[in-house]
Each structure stands twice: as C-alpha cells, then as structure tokens.
Design goal:
The protein has 304 residues and is mainly β. It has helices at 55-59, 72-75, 85-90, and strands spanning 3-9, 37-43, 47-53, 60-63, 80-81, 115-118, 124-132, 138-146, 152-160, 164-166, 176-181, 204-211, 220-225, 236-246, 249-259, 266-270, 273-278, 281-289, 295-303. It has an 8-stranded antiparallel sheet with strand order 2-3-7-8-15-12-11-10. It has a 4-stranded antiparallel sheet with strand order 1-9-14-13, with no helix packed on it. It has a 4-stranded antiparallel sheet with strand order 16-17-18-19, with no helix packed on it. The radius of gyration is 21 Å and the shape is globular.
C-alpha cells in the first residue's frame, strides 16, 4: 500500500474551496458519485485491464454533502443537481433530496444528492489500468488528458502512505524512481522533505516508471501543504509527481514490485512501446493513440 490514490490532474485552477469539493491546488474529483463512463475490460492468461472515460467527472466540481455554513465562494458557484438518471432514481420519493436515516429526525437531515458546478471543461480524460500477470507481475496506468489546444501543465500524482518515501537504489532504469517504507509517519505538521530511505536487502520496493513526462524526467516526490486541520493548523502530505507541459498529456506509468538487493528489472522504450524484462520474463506493452484521444494498450508475452 505504498500509494493511496492515483490521479491525473487537469491544469491548475486557483481559489480555495471546501475540502470535500476541491483542494486549492488542483481539481481533485472527490464527489462520491461523480460520473464516469465504464468502457469495458479485457482479460487473457497474461493480462487484465479496464478503462473508463472520466471527462465528465473532471470537467465539474462535485459535492455530496454541503457544509453547514456556506462561504461566499461556495454560494457563487451556481450549484445544480447532477442530472444523471441514477441520481434521480436513488432519491426519488424523498423530500428535498434529504435522506440520512441515522439522524434522529428529518429536521437534522441535509441535502445529500450529488450536486455539480462548472469547473474546468476538458476535451477528454481517459484512464486505463491493468496488471500483467506471471512470475514477475507488474501494474500499469495509462492516462490521457486534454483541456484545449494551449500548452498547459498536467500533473500525474499519487498520494503516498505515511512513512513511504524515495529509496536510495543504484542502477535504476531511466525514468524510474524507487519507493520504500520505514513505518508509519503520523506527523502531518512538518513541511520538510524526508531524507532518502536506505533499504536493507530483502526490503520491498515499488519501482515507478513513467514515459510522457517533460524532457524524459523521472517521477519525483515532494511534500506540499494540504487542507488545514480542524483547528486551522497547517497540514502537509507527501505525493509522487510526474509533470507534463503540453497541449495534451499521455501518461504511461508502470508500477513494478521489487526487493532491495535483488536484480532490478530492465525497461526498454521504443517508439510507442515499452518492454519489461524481469526474472527471465519479458513483456511488451504497445500504445496506440486513437482518434478520440484515448490510448489503446496491447500486450505481448515475449518470454515466459
């Protein structure tokens, strides 16, 4: 559980809003029922994967439980009920979309149907995730994003569990970072970056490889300020980041488990494909851009 959540974020917006709706740094889709369109799955003996169209989810700001006190910022956002038929069906028959049976009576219940407000219109946002099976399995995440034709900063980020940080590992493939863990980190008040972790032989590692970053840069870790605590105190969190400044972003990320002291996998990139060689197992993932902006993913087992 090195990574808690994965997100490919659209260009930064400014402003500070209720934490359930967004952070003040980027549009993080936190609405519990923010709609995505499931595009299907594929599976054979060596790979399982699925994809979704998340354009709608990323283009709006979402809310499923309004705060008790609305700030002027929130009041000005022209909220409306999500028109998805599923939402209307769930709340059919309720009065004013109020439905919280664990409160003592109706007066304590509040509006909880999924609401939306226009935020950051996107031309397309697609995600494909999968796992390559075998004696040396690894995962992959392929994210395709485009807002418009302007050059913009896109960020692929992953929140890291407390105690997870970059590991000092020699001989890593290009465009790769190694993550390790040293136990729980419960101090959320320090803005300081952590020292590199020196793993012991046999310690588990997670290798994160990325193509599609600026200038072929490897992923990096950072500590940034997050939402304030209950008493207004500053809080910080750690994340893994891949940056891309371009009119569109096509992130291709591999998540490869490894052990400190054991031979590292080899990764070779060629045009629109990447090969992973680990413990004599060799796999090739090919990436084919499609007309709608999504990347098609194809797998070939070269050696068992």
């Amino acid at each position: 559980r090195a990574l808690r959540g994965l997100g490919a974020h659209s260009p930064h917006q400014t402003g500070s809003f209720h934490p359930l709706i967004s952070t003040k740094r980027q549009n993080v889709v936190n609405g519990y029922n923010a709609a995505g369109t499931y595009l299907g799955a594929a599976k054979d003996g060596n790979i399982s994967m699925a994809s979704a169209d998340l354009t709608y989810a990323y283009s709006w700001r979402w809310n499923t439980q309004p705060p008790q006190v609305w700030s002027e910022d929130l009041k000005s956002l022209a909220w409306e009920m999500d028109p998805s038929p599923e939402i209307a069906k769930i709340f059919a028959g309720t009065a004013r979309m109020k439905w919280r049976p664990w409160w003592p009576n109706y007066n304590y219940s509040n509006y909880i149907a999924t609401s939306r407000a226009a935020f950051n219109p996107m031309q397309h946002v697609f995600r494909t995730v999968g796992i390559v099976l075998g004696k040396s399995p690894f995962g992959f995440v392929v994210d395709d994003l485009k807002k418009d034709d302007a050059t913009r900063l896109y960020q692929w980020t992953a929140m890291m569990n407390g105690g997870v940080w970059q590991a000092r590992v020699d001989g890593l493939p290009a465009n790769t970072i190694a993550l390790a863990a040293i136990g729980a980190d419960t101090d959320l008040t320090s803005p300081d970056a952590k020292p590199l972790i020196d793993p012991k032989p046999g310690d588990p590692l997670l290798l994160v490889f990325a193509s599609g970053a600026d200038d072929g840069a490897a992923p990096f870790v950072e500590t940034i300020e997050g939402p304030a605590g209950r008493k207004g105190e500053k809080q910080y969190y750690d994340r893994l980041v891949i940056n891309r400044s371009a009119p569109a972003a096509a992130f291709r990320v591999l998540l490869i488990p490894a052990r400190a002291g054991s031979p590292l996998p080899k990764i070779a990139v060629s045009n629109e494909s990447v090969r992973v060689i680990s413990n004599s197992q060799e796999d090739e993932l090919s990436f084919q851009p499609m007309a709608d902006g999504q990347t098609g993913v194809f797998h070939r087992r070269i050696s068992p």
